[in-house]
Design brief:
Layout lengths: L1 E3 L6 E3 L10 E4 L6 E4 L10 E5 L3 H11 L5 E5 L2 H10 L4 E5 L7 H10 L8 E5 L4 H11 L3 E4 L4 H12 L2
Helix pairs in contact: 2-3, 3-4
């Protein structure tokens, strides 16, 4: 199967062992970026989701929750990295932490909303800090479509993802 890394755009061929689960997590040999591919796609493109969080654990947790959802997942560890990806790849959903190390999640959302190429992108904002009311208010003012704390139930999370992708 021919695969292209969405982060560094490296192209390579690989053989995948396919079982009943069609999505496979791949690590790019060039830049070590983890993303999912679906070798059994039915001809229509899988929705592309960008996950932005400075906590590697949480990025991987979200990937684990969504790996069976027939979506293509890309991760970024900071707002600037996410912004560069958003300028070069057309995503169907952005999941962004409100508290990022370089620019805030709110500032990233404002950039997205002010860019004509991605202004209509659905955005789920997440926060692990217990200032939930302030964080939620900031996220919605910036233009987020939904907000969750990181202490969520997996079924609630995937239901919100499905709803945002159906827009």
């Amino acid at each position: 199967m021919k695969i292209q890394c969405p982060k560094c755009e490296a192209k390579y061929l690989t053989q995948l062992a396919i079982d009943s689960s069609s999505s496979v997590v791949v690590t790019c040999p060039k830049c070590r970026h983890r993303f999912t591919v679906d070798p059994l796609k039915d001809g229509k493109p899988s929705p592309k989701i960008l996950i932005v969080d400075d906590a590697r654990f949480f990025r991987e947790l979200i990937m684990d929750l969504l790996v069976d959802q027939n979506v293509e997942l890309t991760t970024a560890h900071c707002g600037e990295e996410a912004w560069k990806l958003l300028q070069s790849v057309s995503f169907d959903l952005l999941i962004a932490d409100i508290n990022l190390p370089d620019i805030s999640g709110s500032d990233l959302i404002k950039r997205v909303r002010n860019d004509p190429h991605c202004a209509s992108l659905p955005i789920l904002c997440i926060s692990g800090v217990y200032r939930q009311d302030d964080d939620a208010r900031q996220a919605f003012i910036a233009g987020a479509n939904d907000f969750m704390t990181k202490s969520f139930h997996p079924e609630d999370f995937t239901a919100r993802i499905d709803k945002l992708l159906a827009r």
